[in-house]
Inverse folding.
């Protein structure tokens, strides 16, 4: 535990940690060493492909163990926060899409706060979920930006993000009002700087694992290598590999995309009840 404390202290400037009341001391005093290091061992198995165990999307009521239906008992809270800490530490040495997409979702929330407040909880909350999850779609290259005219690419991106947003709404049993959705889209797109930021952010993710020396089929075969070992997902992956050139350029999404998306989306507590069907 002393070594771990020294590692944490190394992340802060010297003048900051000279104060007796600093985050490292507070954090160490809150956690159980036994539980924390058992979590570190288990997280190695959970760091699978693009995924990290992540608690950042959990509602506040879940984090503190209160609310109408608390899911955390008092005795579990140490372990819960240990998971969160390990996930962020893990992201410093292993690539985690969550470490990028979570703060981006927070930026969207701040910039579109007024738009969200005028249209109710569902429109705002599920748009943030869509922004978060779409990062995994682009980094896994399940959708690929077209080449050529930047204006064409931008329009492709806008159509893609709002189509994905509709999918998220449908999968959570929310009736999509086309007129209200068009109004929400129009109001959101008034924030040009925000959408240009998202446009370039997703393009960077889209190119992160791309290499001209690796054929597309080889890339996807590597990505889904473990999933193809079982019969459950093999047919879905083979269909995608066969038709990938036409699928990855589409701007629309349907329920047929979900089985493939679930193979790259994080499996944390928030995502578990997403994409489970309209019921």
């Amino acid at each position: 535990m002393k070594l771990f404390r020294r590692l944490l202290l190394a992340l802060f400037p010297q003048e900051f940690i000279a104060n007796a009341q600093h985050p490292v001391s507070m954090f160490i005093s809150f956690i159980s060493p036994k539980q924390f290091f058992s979590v570190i061992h288990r997280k190695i198995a959970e760091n699978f492909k693009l995924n990290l165990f992540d608690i950042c999307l959990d509602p506040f009521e879940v984090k503190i163990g209160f609310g109408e239906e608390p899911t955390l008992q008092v005795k579990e809270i140490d372990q819960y926060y240990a998971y969160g800490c390990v996930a962020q530490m893990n992201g410093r040495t292993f690539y985690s899409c969550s470490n990028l997409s979570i703060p981006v979702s927070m930026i969207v929330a701040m910039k579109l706060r007024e738009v969200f407040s005028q249209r109710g909880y569902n429109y705002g909350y599920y748009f943030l979920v869509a922004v978060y999850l779409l990062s995994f779609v682009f980094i896994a290259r399940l959708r690929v930006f077209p080449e050529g005219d930047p204006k064409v690419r931008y329009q492709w991106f806008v159509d893609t993000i709002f189509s994905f947003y509709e999918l998220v709404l449908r999968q959570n049993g929310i009736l999509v009002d086309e007129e209200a959705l068009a109004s929400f889209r129009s109001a959101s797109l008034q924030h040009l700087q925000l959408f240009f930021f998202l446009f370039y952010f997703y393009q960077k993710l889209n190119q992160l694992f791309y290499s001209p020396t690796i054929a597309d089929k080889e890339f996807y075969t590597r990505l889904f290598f473990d999933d193809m070992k079982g019969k459950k997902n093999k047919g879905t992956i083979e269909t995608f590999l066969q038709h990938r050139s036409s699928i990855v350029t589409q701007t629309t999404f349907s329920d047929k995309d979900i089985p493939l998306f679930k193979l790259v989306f994080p499996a944390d507590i928030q995502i578990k009840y997403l994409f489970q069907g309209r019921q």
